[in-house]
Amino acid sequence: MGQYASDGYSGNLKSNRRSNSFIGRRTSDLLIWVPSVLFLLFIGIPLIAVFYNLDATKIAVELRNPEIISALDLGLVTSLLATFVSFIFGVPTAYLLATRKFIGKPVFDAILDVPIVLPPAVAGLALLLAFAPRGLLGPELRQIGIILPGSTLAVVLSQFFVASPFILRSSKAAFESLDKKIIDSARLLNPSRLGVFFTITLPLAANGVLAGLVMTWARAMGEFGATLMFAGNLPGVTQTMPLAIYMLMAEDPLASNVLSAILVITSFSILIIFRLLGRGKSVQYYDQA
Amino acid sequence: MIKLSMIKKSYGSKEVLKGVSLEVRKRELLCLVGPNGAGKTTILNVIAGLCRPDEGTVFINDVLMDGMNGNHSVHVYPSDRKIGYVFQDYALFPHMTVSQNIAYGMKARHVPRNDAAERTRKLLDLLGLLDHSEHYPHQLSGGQKQKTALARALAVEPEILLLDEPLSALDPRARESIRVELKRILGTLEVTSIYVTHDVAEAYDVSDRIAVMGPGRIEQTGSREEVFSKPRPYVAQFLGDGLQWKRSHLNGNHEIYS
């Protein structure tokens, strides 16, 4: 990395300003390295701090704490469900947006993007106003026996609302980047449209879809604001890991710390998987993708 | 047999095809030659059903593929047209081996597995790809990709073969040998073909008949002798680029063109 910075960039500076090229290199190195390292420290130190007070025995003890277990359990189940639902709805929608033209498409597209920029607390309130018993669709939902606030389903819906744009964006970009001629050759050979989708389109977009899945899952697992507003904070029912971390801060800081550590490790692993997926793509299809 | 009548196609305000009529006889190889951007590829895409014309009719072997049948408009799905299409940059399936690429169409059409394997092997043999059957497209040379694309198109026993600038993505040295080989293979096939190129020499070499395109329309169609000896004004100008070729032709290399 260091080699890259000094050889690549200062090389350019040197050719432009030959006379003080030495100072140019030193200055440019400083300008690049100082902010980078400070940046790394600011992000890195808190990540390390999470593990500072912990050792294996403390973690082992806390892992038997029923509150932690139920938060972990609920967090995993709901986030995986939310990811699954995002997949079921996100991939076809991404395909639609990537391949079809229709009236109102820019609006359609923009609306689905809103959750990315919307503050999660606002998302939660919006979900309440729409689906709570006294909300916009509340009466209809109550008629079919569904009362969302305070239910695990509401957790899944909050996570889906906030996290689904990731798989949508990523899959859409993947579908858009496909070589149309490859799909066309498949359409000439394969009488089944679904067949073309599952044998050619989806496999070629797989890296983008998978990357989106991973990001969606990570976002769903970390969801806090919308869940708190819409689903509430009932241990074992709606209290996911981030909610438990927040609640335990006061009564059992160590438990809160252990849960945080688990989330840091999970997020880090997700990121590594994400990176490996990215690398796989460049090696595999290097020539044609 | 392919018959296009008054095909029009616009993309936005750009009229790509301005009323194209063209007839390709059964089992002949017609070369569609013209400058870049004339709409040659669009014609192939219309024939293949990948691009729906705004106006005009397409018949393949006397069956209406595009156009009006009484009151309702017809558009036959690409795979139902019995067309093999070799794209300019091959468009191989990058996640499949050479064999899988070739077998794809047969598998999709539920050809019995043994028959498909047998036909794949025959095509690999015909095109000299036996040593590369388990390679992925990114491991192949340009010429090998091109042959794979041809084999994949031929695997489903098409009645029509469309070749879009089949030599243009090859490096000049490979081009010559692949041209000879391609001509040999096309000669053995009993299939109606359209061969698109912007290279006059290639057109003269490969084809039975030639259609010369100007922007958006066909300027002249005829046997290659007709077109080369009595070119219409636009065609004469376009063929002027071929002077270069004629000179090298007269200086030798006769056998390639005879």
Outline of this structure?
The complex is a heterodimer of chains A (289) and B (258). Chain A has 289 residues and is mostly helical. Chain A is built from 13 helices and no strands.
Description of the molecule:
With 289 residues, chain A is mainly α. Chain A has 2 domains: 2-52; 56-285, MetI-like fold (Orthogonal Bundle), CATH 1.10.3720. Chain A has 13 helices and no strands. In chain A, helix 4 runs antiparallel to helix 10 (193-222), helix 9 packs across helix 10 (193-222) and helix 10 runs antiparallel to helix 13. The two termini of chain A are 27 Å apart. By secondary structure, chain B is α/β, with parallel strands linked by helices. Chain B has a domain at 2-81 and 195-257: P-loop containing nucleotide triphosphate hydrolases (Rossmann fold, 3-Layer(aba) Sandwich), CATH 3.40.50.300. Chain B is 38% helix and 28% strand. Chain B contains 10 helices and 11 strands. In chain B, the strands form 2 sheets. Chain B has a 6-stranded mixed sheet with strand order 7-8-9-3-10-11, with helices on both faces. In chain B, helix 2 packs across helix 3. Chain B is globular. Chain B starts with a strand and ends with a helix. The A-B interface holds A 179, 181-182, 184-192, 195, 199-200, 203-204, 284-289 and B 45, 48, 50, 77-81, 83-85, 87, 89, 91-95, 104-105, 108-109, 137-138, 149, 152-153, 156.
Spans of chain B of 5+ residues with little confidence (pLDDT < 50)?
254-258
The CATH architecture classification of the domain at 2-81 and 195-257 in chain B is 3-Layer(aba) Sandwich
The N- to C-terminal Cα distance of chain A equals 27 Å
Helix/strand order of chain B, N-terminal first: EEEHEEEEHHHEHEHEEHHHH
Largest sheet of chain B: 6 strands, mixed
Number of helices of chain B: 10
**What fraction strand of chain B?**
25-35%
CA(first)-CA(last) distance of chain B:
26 Å
CATH topology of the domain at 2-81 and 195-257 in chain B: Rossmann fold
Q: Level of helix content of chain A?
A: over 70%
- For CATH, the homologous superfamily of the domain at 2-81 and 195-257 in chain B is named as P-loop containing nucleotide triphosphate hydrolases
Shape annotation of chain B: globular
